[in-house]
Design brief:
11 helices, mainly alpha, globular
Amino acid sequence: MDFTPVLHSEWLKIRTLRSLVGCLAAVLLATAAFSALAGADTEGASSAPLFSVFFGVGFGQIAAIAFGTTAVSSEFRGGALRVTLAAVPRRGRWFTAKVAAVAIPVLVVGLVTGGVSLVVGEAVLGTKADGLTWGEELRGVLGCAVYLTLMALLAAGLTAVLRSGVATLSILIPFLLIVSFVVGDMSGSVADVLPDRAGQVVFHATWDGALGPWTGLAVTGLWTAAALLAGAWSIRRRDA
């Protein structure tokens, strides 16, 4: 089977699962809502307006991770993967289509989310956002889309390895909400290369670490690539 119909079938799976559509909606809602709350913090918003505008991405990424996890873990329930591979025997082609079916909607929703967060955040900040340049605003919107996409794909790759959505979420969510901050406070520059902390440099107007906005996203991309390669290996080598 050619790649296009495989991609189309994977997209149909995503469209017909309400939980996945809900995850995409949650990405937008959570990010915009928490960005608005951050803008209401007068002291923090004054010192870092760009980060305040996109503060909600740290919460929206949880929904993006849930989307990537659910999209892949659904294949490991009830023998669904065996049916899929019977229709698409070339496992590498199927996994590539699955990755694309995860990445494209998250990227689109991420762009919309970045734009909405920018509008909402600046509206709440008011005059405190006047110092933001056009370049910083554009970087924030694009960075939001790329970062959310990378985190969704990181979750998808890890799920393909673990073959369990529960296991993936049990690892990633505590890591993002607790471990990353603890390690960051204790180890200094070592934490700068963690996938979430590296990627979120793009939301800072200034940064004291070694990574810049785009090199930070590149580091997150390397983590994602490693997870996807491990996932592809697992799909190829392990029984359905």
